[in-house]
# Entry
Amino acid sequence: MSARLMLVHAHPDDETSQTGATLARYAAEGRVTLVTCTLGEAGDIVADDLSYLTAETLGEHRLGELHAAMADLGVTDYVRLGGDFAYRDSGMTTDEQGTVHPLDDLHPDCFWRADLLEAATHLVALIRDRRPQVLATYDTVGGYGHPDHVQAHRVAMYAYVLAGTASFRPDLGGAWTVSRVLWTAWDAASVPEMVAVADQLGLSELLTGWFDPGAELPPMFVPHEYIGARVHEQPWAAQVASALGRYRSQVDVDDPWWQFVKVAPDVPRYESFRLAAGVPFPPGEHPATDLFAGLSLDD
# Structure
């Protein structure tokens, strides 16, 4: 009778920047499976000394970064959907309004162009083998709109249904119904506190365009009433900061933005989730502090 959590993310580093504390916590308390859908071949390289990497070599490099980050978080069960290099990073473009769109010239093997049933079937096999009680992934817009995040959402939700359907591909193992599906989110109620902390640290300019008074919040922010559970980052902050620092090709942990949203120890942070399907969180504590609250963990 152990807690088993599966997270579906698009690229290496997404799991740490969005759910690093959750991974560290449940890797220590139970069993965590991380499924990464691509190796991030289209990511922008931020470290000057890694500028020699190309779209053909970046994926292998980011896989090495993933190995190091998972060691920091204590995660031992982490796989790539369909195997290494099965799906390629799709990349993205941003218009003048800041809206994210797929590229016009897509690589033929990119995840955005993947056959949905094929990709979901790969995940069905993993779900039936690992038998997680909780499955977490992105929301319908992939948080901020990256096509691979949107596709990861679609694949995870389709696989959730198919994995519990006994007549679908019985050769992949017995049906397993995930008890609770969660979508990652930011709690809109945390915005005033974030703004106040940014003011105290002299970092208000970082939030320009994100939290302008009277402006509509970015799509990943969810009203507090819809936040089903959240994990406090503080107990795992050192592990998360170390793991994030492993992704030197993509993340400069000394950048003020990353210091504010993930690294600096004096900023209160939570990783929040909303209920998408399955067993509701028990009434009372809101948000719940345990992703498994109210679930039976009997095998």
